[in-house]
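REQUEST FORM: STRUCTURE PREDICTION
Request ID: SP-0412
Submitted by: Lab K.M.
Chain count: 1
Length (residues): 308
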Amino acid sequence: MQRFTNILFSPVGRSDNPAAIRRVMDLARRNGARLTLLGTVPEPSRRHRMLSSAVLDAAIESAARHDMTGRLERWCEAADGVDIDIDIDVQTGNAALTVIGQVLACGHDLVVVTSDEDSEDHATIKRLLRKCPCPVWVIRPTRARIQRVLVAVDPEPDEVELNNTLLELGAGMVELGGGELHVVHAWHLYGESKLRSSAFKEAPPAQVRELLRAEHDGHLRALNELLTLSAVFDAPWKVHLVKGSPGLVVPELARHQRINLLIMGTVARTGISGLVMGNTAEQILDDVGCSVIAVKPPGFRSPIEGKL
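STATUS: Completed
RESULT:
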């Protein structure tokens, strides 16, 4: 499994999730990693500051920071007997920007967040998906007894390094917690609807079927080659080659296979239409109820780097 050495855990959701912190602590222990628990306290809006007292605002912020510190300390109690280094930090500001700033300042290589799935949490997580430079693991509650991990890949030559990272993470999570390992690749035939019915060019049905068959076979060969070359897991993958838009077919497959952890890329470096890109990744996050690990491609730089 990819070795994480400096993990940042931030409970974005307001509800405690003891199972989540235990999983993160186990991951930190197995990797010999340092773990930082980061709590964020919202700052008052500019309008509020104009109408309120600075002394009162400072008292409210102090109370909120005290409560957050106590909450993180309670979560640390789960580490009793676990040999890992844990730091606690509480900051005031926008949750997503605070997390990204901490990653840029301290070199964290994994961000883990929890979510209550309200609109504020969702906005924070989407911002992290777009702009956080390291992988982001969104942990959602689950009652599943068997871990089922689904890795979404696109076997394009330009994305070999990203695909290998995704597959390695998937294999590592199964090695960590046991369970099933699935991989999915979504494909489509460019211009299929135009070929079937167009005022300018309408291909015979037999020709469309042949093009679809050739497209499917090409994607299958590329996917099999990717899995053969990666060789990161000695048990067989459960491979799913599905036709359609990733934003539609990946959530559908996740529900059908009862997946509780999806691992995917969030931003592509190229314009290849089959890749899971920013908007598609956000659509998938909206439509799946499972936990998600989102990974940026190699060389990604946060757009807010240097602006904080």
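NOTES: The first strand starts at residue 6 and ends at 10.
Reviewed by: T.R.
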